[in-house]
Amino acid sequence: MTTKTTIQILKNEIDQLVAQLPDKTVEEKEGIMRQLDRTLNIYNQLRHDPYFNGTNN
Q1: What's the rounded Cα separation, in Å, for the pair 52 and 48?
Q2: Does the CA dihedral 49-31-18-14 come out positive or negative?
Q3: What is the DSSP secondary structure assignment for residue 54, as one 8-state letter?
Q4: φ and ψ at residue 20, rounded to 5 degrees
Q5: Which of 1, 2, 8 is nearest to 43 (CA)?
Q6: What per-residue confidence (pLDDT) applies to 57?
Q7: What's the pLDDT score for residue 6?
Q8: pLDDT, tens digit (0-9, with 9 covering 90-100), for 37-54
Q9: So what's the pLDDT on residue 54?
């Protein structure tokens, strides 16, 4: 699996998590937000790390 594919999978997961929020209770939203935070951290690390995003020379 390429980094680009991994980033797209993470983006899709983020979109799915955000889409779930309106229909959830406060407790469920807290769990989703924790998962969203972890996923966003990984996503941002991959996008900004030259080793992973292919911009290293």
Answers
A1: 8
A2: positive
A3: T
A4: -75, -25
A5: 8
A6: 41
A7: 86
A8: 999 999 888 888 777 656
A9: 60
In sequence order, which ranges of the chain are alpha helices (DSSP H)? 3-20, 26-48, 50-53
Q: In the structure encoding, which two tokens stand for residue 25, read together?
A: 């209770």
Q: Nearest 5 degrees, angle CA 9-CA 39-CA 31?
A: 120
Q: What is the mean pLDDT of residues 9-38?
A: 93
The CA–CA distances, whole Å, from 43 to 24, 32, 52 equal 24, 16, 11
CA separation for the pair 33, 10 (Å, rounded): 15
CB-neighbour burial class of residue 48 (10 A; exposed 0-12, middle 13-18, buried 19+): exposed
